[in-house]
Amino acid sequence: MPLNGFSPRVIIVYHSGFGHTAALAQSVFDGAREGGAEVTVISAADMTDADWDAVDSADALVFGSAVYMGNVAAGFQSFAEKTGARCMAGTWRDKVAAGFVNSGAKSGDKLHALNSLAIFAAQHHMHWVSLGLTAGWMSAGGSEHDLNRLGFWLGAGAQTDVDADPDDIHPADLRTCRHLGQRVATVTRQLVAGRLATTI
Ligand SMILES: Cc1cc2nc3c(=O)[nH]c(=O)nc-3n(C[C@H](O)[C@H](O)[C@H](O)COP(=O)(O)O)c2cc1C
C-alpha cells in the first residue's frame, strides 16, 4: 500500500447532552483531518447500523464524553454497554484509541472519566494514545491560554462553565482537542505502516 497517500480512518464517538462536548469533538475532527485522516464524528446517542459498521471498520476510535456525576455520561456508557459482543469477539482489537472529556468544574473529576474511557478501550484490546503534551499553565510564565492548560496526560481534558454557550468553549481546550486529533491521525498512520513493514 502506498503510505504517502494513505488516510487512516478515524471516528470520533462522543456524548454531549447540551452541545459543549460536541464542539470539542469538532476540534478533534479538525485536528485529525489536518493529520491526514479520513474522519467521521458520530453521536453515541444516535448510532445507526451504518455507524456501527463504520466504527467496526475504522483504524482509530476517539471517545469523548461530558462528565456527569463524576464519570462519563450515561449516554456514553449506554453506547459502551452495547459493545459487549464486540468486546467478546475482539472486533476492535488493535485499533488505536484515545479520549477527551469535558466538565463544569476545573477538575470535575475528569480523570475518573478519562480512566473509564481508557479502560473501555483496554477491554476492547485497543492501543490507547496519550495526549502527548506537557502540562500548561503551571508556572509564572504560563497562562490559561496554554495548550493542555488543565494538565492532563491520559487524554484531553476541557472545562466549560455550566452557564456557557457551546460557542464559548475555552479556545485553549479547543486547541488541545485539535492536537489530540492530529496525534491520533499520526500514530494511526505509523501503526499501519509498521504493520505493513513487519508483515513484509
Ligand atoms: C447531570 C449532570 C451531571 C454533571 N456532573 C458533573 C460533574 O460530576 N463534574 C463536573 O465538573 N461537571 C458536571 N456537570 C457539568 C457538565 O460536565 C458540563 O456542563 C459540561 O460542559 C456539559 O457538557 P455537554 O453540554 O456536552 O453535555 C454535570 C452536568 C449535568 C447535566
From TrEMBL:
<dbReference type="GO" id="GO:0003955">
    <property type="term" value="F:NAD(P)H dehydrogenase (quinone) activity"/>
</dbReference>
<dbReference type="InterPro" id="IPR008254">
    <property type="entry name" value="Flavodoxin/NO_synth"/>
</dbReference>
<protein>
    <submittedName>
        <fullName>Flavodoxin family protein</fullName>
        <ecNumber>1.6.5.2</ecNumber>
    </submittedName>
</protein>
<keyword id="KW-0560">Oxidoreductase</keyword>
<dbReference type="InterPro" id="IPR005025">
    <property type="entry name" value="FMN_Rdtase-like_dom"/>
</dbReference>
<dbReference type="InterPro" id="IPR001226">
    <property type="entry name" value="Flavodoxin_CS"/>
</dbReference>
<dbReference type="GO" id="GO:0010181">
    <property type="term" value="F:FMN binding"/>
</dbReference>
<dbReference type="GO" id="GO:0009055">
    <property type="term" value="F:electron transfer activity"/>
</dbReference>
<dbReference type="Pfam" id="PF03358">
    <property type="entry name" value="FMN_red"/>
</dbReference>
<feature type="domain" description="Flavodoxin-like">
    <location>
        <begin position="10"/>
        <end position="185"/>
    </location>
</feature>
<dbReference type="GO" id="GO:0016020">
    <property type="term" value="C:membrane"/>
</dbReference>
<dbReference type="InterPro" id="IPR029039">
    <property type="entry name" value="Flavoprotein-like_sf"/>
</dbReference>
